Amino acid sequence: MLHRLSELEIENYVIPEPQDVRGWDIIDPQDNLVGEVDDLLVDRETGNVPYLVADIGGLFGIGTDTCVIPMQAVAASPDTEELRISKSVDEMKDAPSFEEDDELSDDYFERVATFYGVPAYLPTGAPA
Known about the structure:
Layout: E1 2-4, E2 25-27, E3 33-43, E4 51-56, E5 65-70, E6 74-77, E7 82-85, H1 89-92, H2 106-116
Parallel strand pairs: 2-7
Antiparallel strand pairs: 1-3, 2-3, 3-4, 4-5, 6-7
């Protein structure tokens, strides 16, 4: 089962570097800002962090979409606290998004994996 790191008791979950990328910018191949990492989805059973939750698009936080991005779809640049993604800003407009109260089902994670061209990490249940 996946859970947002922000909803867990942080002291019980130490996310190793470079996986704790909250607050990092997401940059496309043309060096455009795509968005920012808002949270991480943690598998409590394994300790894995298979997905990040990002706010993309918009201006100054207005008009942003929330989406889940597989960690396999990004490359970390710890020196600059940036994540590089192969999708352009325009392509990211088509990323599977969700609302805070939406259920993140296996179907949603499969659509996410297909969009980014990576294998799906399917939780045993929906995030809390």
